[in-house]
Amino acid sequence: MILKDKVVLVTGAGGGIGRDFAHAMAAAGAKVVVNDLGTSVKGEGKDAGPAQKVVDEIKAKGGKAVANTDSVAEWESANRILQTALDAFGRIDVVVNNAGILRDRFFFNMSVEEWRAVIDVHLNGSFYVSRAAATHFKAQQSGCYVHMTSTSGLVGNLGQANYSAAKLGIAGLSKSIALDMAKYHVRSNCISPFAWSRMIGSIPTETEDQKARVGKMKVMETAKIAPLAVFLGSEQAKDVTGQIFAVRANELFLMSQNRPVRSVHRAEGWTPEAIASHAIPSLRAHFYPLERSQDVFSWDPS
Ligand SMILES: NC(=O)c1ccc[n+]([C@@H]2O[C@H](COP(=O)([O-])OP(=O)(O)OC[C@H]3O[C@@H](n4cnc5c(N)ncnc54)[C@H](O)[C@@H]3O)[C@@H](O)[C@H]2O)c1
Question: E strand or H helix at 109, and its extent?
C-alpha cells in the first residue's frame, strides 16, 4: 500500500494504459480521480461510460475512485479535472498525464487541424493539468508528476510529426517542472511506454508476417507499465526526478537525455567553407542515422 491515502489523478484512464494505472494506484491505496473524455483514438466524440466503468470496477474491489469526463485539452476544463480531486478527496498528490489521441499523416499532407488537435491534447493538455495542480503542490510543498512521452518523439517515427513534436515537448515540460519545483519537493518524470492498446492496435494483420509481428506485440501488456507509475508516485521515489524511463513488457529502460556528443574548435572562427572541410568531416562519424523507434528497439519484446 505504498500510495495509502494519496490522491492520484490519472487522465485518459477510461481505457488502455491509463485504466491499468488507475487500478494499480487504487490497489496501492490511493484515492483515484479517473478522468476520461471517452473519445475515439482520433479524438472524435465523447462518452461518459469508460471513466465511470473504471470507477465502478475500482469500487467493486473496495477501492476509492471518482470519475471526471472533462477534456485535458482546454485550460478551463483541465481545472475542472483538478477541482474534482479537491471536491472528492480534499487534496492532490500525484498527477499522471496520460490522455492521448493520434492523427497520423505524412508531414507534407498534415493539416493545421491535425497538428493542433494532437498538440492540444498531449502537450497543451499536459501543461494545463500540470499547471492547475502546481499551485496546490507549491503550497503543500509536495507533489509528483508522471507524464507519458513516446519513442516516436524521443527517437522518431514516420507519419507522426504532430505526435512526435508533442511527445518530445512533454519531455522538455517535465524537465522544466522538475527544475522549477525541486525547491518545493515536487518531482516530475516521464514514462515512454510500449503497450498493446487500441492506439497501436490498428496495425493490419493480413499477411502471415504481419500476424506474427502483431502476435509478438501483444506481450506488451498495458498492465506492465503500471508498477513504474505507482513507484514514481510513491515516497520511495522521493529522490527520483527529471528522468525519462521506458517500459516494454518486462524490460525497463532509463533513456538518455541530450548532451554534446563531440565538438570542434577553430581559433580563427568558422566560415561555411571551413565547416564543410573541417567541422563536418570531424563530426560526421557521430551523426545519428535517420532511425525510427523500431530500428533502435529492434529486438522482440518479452
Ligand atoms: N500504447 C503505446 O504503445 C504507447 C506508446 C507511446 C506512448 N503512449 C502514450 O500513452 C498514453 C496512453 O495511451 P494508450 O495506448 O493507453 O491509448 P488509449 O487510446 O487506449 O487511451 C487514451 C485515453 O485518453 C482519452 N482521451 C483522449 N483525449 C482526451 C482528452 N482530451 N481528455 C481526456 N481524455 C482523453 C481517450 O478517451 C482514451 O481512453 C498516451 O499518452 C499515449 O500517447 C502509448
Answer: none
Task: Please state the atom number of ligand 1 nearest to the C-alpha of residue 14.
Answer: 39
State which ligand 1 atom lies nearest to the alpha carbon of 73: 31
| Whether 35 contacts 69, CB under 8 Å | yes
- Rg of the chain's alpha carbons, rounded to an integer? 21
State the Cα–Cα distance between residues 165 and 161, nearest whole angstrom: 6
CA distances from 112 to 22, 73, 82, 93, 119 (A): 33, 16, 29, 36, 11
Output the residue whose Cα is nearest ligand 1's atom 20: 16
Contact 41, 9 (CB under 8 A): no
User: How far are the Cα atoms of 1, 32, 33 from residue 63, in angstroms, in the given order?
Assistant: 12, 9, 12
CA-closest residue to ligand 1 atom 11: 98
Asked whether the beta carbons of 45 and 22 are under 8 A apart, the reply is no
Beta strand spans in 117-257 (E) = 143-148, 186-194, 244-248, 251-254
**pLDDT tens figures, 238-292:** 999 999 999 999 999 999 999 999 999 999 999 999 999 999 999 999 999 999 9
Q: In what order do the strands lie in the sheet with 7-10?
A: 64-68, 31-35, 7-10, 94-97, 143-148, 186-194, 244-248, 251-254
Query: CB–CB of 58/34 below 8 Å?
Result: yes
Q: pLDDT tens across 109-130, in order?
A: 999 999 999 999 999 999 999 9
- List 95's β-bridge partners, or say none: 9, 145
Query: Can you point out the beta strands (E) in the chain?
Result: 7-10, 31-35, 64-68, 94-97, 143-148, 186-194, 244-248, 251-254
